[in-house]
Design brief:
This protein has about 325 residues and is α+β, with helices and mostly antiparallel strands. The chain is about 40% helix and about 20% strand. The protein contains 12 helices and 10 strands. The chain has a 5-stranded antiparallel beta sheet with strand order 6-7-8-10-9, covered by helices on one side. The protein has a 3-stranded mixed beta sheet with strand order 3-4-5. Strand 3, helix 6 and strand 4 form a beta-alpha-beta unit. The radius of gyration is 22 Å and the shape is globular.
């Protein structure tokens, strides 16, 4: 993909932001914040025509669509190259960016933040389950809608807190969440809820961060690589245990899978920004005790333990 307009990182983390923010970015879907009023171009138009559209509408990129399907994109960088190299009157289909990184409308907003910070593009086309273009998402869309939702959440919490005093929850707790293959809509829910539970019980912030990293990596692994599974969390006075058990297809070489950078992710998953081969490696790195059992065709179970009094650093 050619470079679109660049941007500064959104100052939000999908792992260690405040709990209210984490809840919002996992609850909100991309379709809740994207811009649905689309300005689109056609492959038979010229790059000069697209340049004029971008200038008139003050946008830095225009998706190219055929039969409601995204076939390319023309960015500011594409126009600059066309002007510099003398092909501004060429047809769009000859010079547009064809390998376009996109988002799906039912993904949690956390995915959009990861994309914006990872690729540093100012905008992403958004497709629905039928691969039809349904919107554009920019960093401005994310920030504006988060501010609106955060304001609503603060008002709700203030009303809830008036005249009431929340009881301190018991230290011991068992939590369980299910995942499904390629179901990105619910991805991240387990890590968000577990982190919230730990904060309510006043666990140390370093422990919470390590547990959140392990849980998120294992949860995403199940969504991407397995047929679905279960995430379990046991919160005990002296430790937190995360157990991720899925239903296949299993890992052929566990030692290889634990190496940083090793991945069996397909091109679709890589196009979504996953498949870097760091999930199991990151989980093992933040764990005080780590075990993995896997059998081909029967699934994989990973157990990560973080001790309360551990001196281990997540870095």
């Amino acid at each position: 993909m050619s470079e679109q307009e660049t941007m500064q990182d959104i100052p939000l983390s999908t792992v260690d932001s405040p709990s209210v923010v984490l809840e919002l970015i996992h609850q909100l879907k991309i379709k809740d914040v994207m811009t649905s009023a689309l300005l689109i171009g056609e492959k038979t138009q010229t790059m000069r025509h697209i340049q004029a559209l971008m200038r008139e509408n003050k946008v830095a990129g225009i998706p190219i669509v055929e039969d409601n399907h995204l076939i390319g994109l023309v960015s500011t960088e594409d126009i600059i190259n066309a002007l510099d190299k003398g092909y501004i009157d060429a047809l769009v289909e000859e010079r547009m960016t064809k390998d376009v990184i996109h988002l799906q409308d039912d993904m949690p907003l956390s995915f959009a933040i990861s994309y914006l910070n990872k690729y540093r593009y100012g905008r992403f086309p958004v497709l629905n389950k039928d691969n039809e273009l349904v919107g554009i998402l920019t960093s401005t869309d994310v920030i504006r809608n988060l501010l609106i939702e955060m304001n609503r959440e603060v008002m709700r919490l203030e009303k809830l807190q008036k005249g009431t005093e929340e009881a301190v929850p018991s230290t011991y707790s068992e939590m369980e969440f299910t995942t499904a293959h390629y179901n990105f809509e619910k991805a991240g829910r387990a890590s968000t809820e577990i982190k919230k539970a730990l904060k309510q019980r006043n666990f140390d912030s370093k422990l919470i961060r390590r547990v959140a990293i392990a849980c998120y990596e294992l949860e995403i692994n199940q969504v991407v690589h397995s047929n679905g599974g279960v995430m379990r969390c046991s919160i005990l006075p002296d430790k937190v245990i995360i157990t991720a058990a899925d239903t296949g297809p299993g890992i052929e070489d566990v030692n290889q899978a634990l190496k940083e950078g090793y991945s069996t992710a397909n091109e679709y998953i890589r196009s979504l920004g996953f498949g870097a081969g760091m999930g199991l490696a990151n989980t093992k790195r933040v764990s005080d005790d780590f075990t993995i059992n896997s059998a081909l065709g029967k699934g994989t179970t990973v157990r990560s333990v973080v001790f309360v009094n551990s001196s281990k650093d997540e870095n």
